[in-house]
Design goal:
Blueprint (H helix, E strand, L loop, with lengths): L1 E2 L2 E5 L5 H14 L10 H8 L7 E7 L2 E13 L3 E11 L8 H15 L4 E3 L7 H9 L5 H4 L9 H9 L1
Parallel strand pairs: 5-6
Antiparallel strand pairs: 1-2, 2-3, 3-4, 4-5
Family: Belongs to the acetyltransferase family.
Keywords: Acyltransferase, Transferase
Protein name: SpeG
Length: about 160
């Protein structure tokens, strides 16, 4: 989709290096760069093969990638097909120009066309700008409404679980 100098399109195999660069920018933004363990070849393998594990939309300005939204489908026995938005990032110098909203709208269009009943994602509590942005778009904070907490078992924790 083209509008006012930017393009939103599905990512392809050749985009992985630029996507990885944006992943690192986002990780730095949320102060978690040390947690990124994958490399470009992992993105290529996991996202662009016969059994891809994720999908991605990218935003470009003059063929320069300035943002991305990475997602994957999940399933709920309560509501059916759902989607999880793992990452959504636009470079700071390209924010407040409608690019992020257009990426989000493009993704939501895909989600509705593929019959997803809802989309979910996580936002750091301290990221008030993101929290306000999502609330303005109609998002519901499940921590407040459903009293849900998100948990994670790391690879090490999974291995430890098997030995006990």
């Amino acid at each position: 989709m083209e509008d006012t100098g930017y393009t939103v399109r599905p990512a392809n195999y050749e985009d992985c290096e630029a996507i990885m660069s944006l992943v690192m920018e986002l990780a730095a933004h949320v102060k978690c760069e040390h947690e990124v363990k994958i490399k470009v070849d992992t993105l290529q393998r996991d996202g662009f093969g016969k059994n891809s594990l994720f999908h991605c939309l990218v935003a470009e300005v003059n063929r320069d990638m300035v943002g991305y939204l990475l997602y994957y489908y999940t399933y709920s026995p309560w509501v059916g097909k759902t989607v999880y938005m793992e990452d959504f990032y636009v470079k700071p110098e390209h924010r407040k120009k409608g690019i992020g909203t257009e990426v989000l709208k493009s993704a939501v269009k895909v989600f509705l066309e593929t019959q997803c009943s809802c989309m979910e994602w996580a936002v750091p509590c301290w990221n008030k700008v993101a929290v306000d942005y999502y609330k303005q778009k109609g998002a519901i904070n499940l921590t407040e409404t459903e009293q849900l907490h998100i948990y994670r078992l790391t690879e090490e924790a999974m291995e430890n679980l098997l030995t006990k």
